[in-house]
Amino acid sequence: PFMDKWYKGEKMWGLHEAAIKSGALWQVLFFVGLLEIPFLLKLANGTVDGTGDIGFDPLGLKDDAEEFAANQLKETKNGRLAMIAISGMTHHYFLTGKGPIEFITQIPNFKSCAAAAVDTGLCK
User: Fold this and answer.
1) Do residues 12 and 93 make contact, with C-beta atoms less than 8 angstroms apart?
2) Residue 61 DSSP class
3) 64-73 pLDDT per residue, tens
4) Handedness of CA 4, 6, 9, 15 (dihedral sign)
């Protein structure tokens, strides 16, 4: 709601540049870098037993090695799919200038299809 007061009519790239110039993204980069310190220490010692593993396992998910390996594979595939999805949405925005929500609301008969889905009970 407050974004339109700060950035009037700018595209996403302009907002990115404004965030860098104001220092907001440098703060994010700094704090994310702080979160990486335990991993970098384990990496330097040669004790890393998985990508990004910092020893945080309060639920004991590593107890069953076979299930843990299956969950790692599922998480890797899920992450890759998410990266492809975000990449597709970003490229679509750069090509058309419309975000995913703006695009879907301009599909012909979108509102009538949505209303029909609510009327039939498919969506509530």
Assistant:
1) yes
2) T
3) 889 988 988 9
4) negative
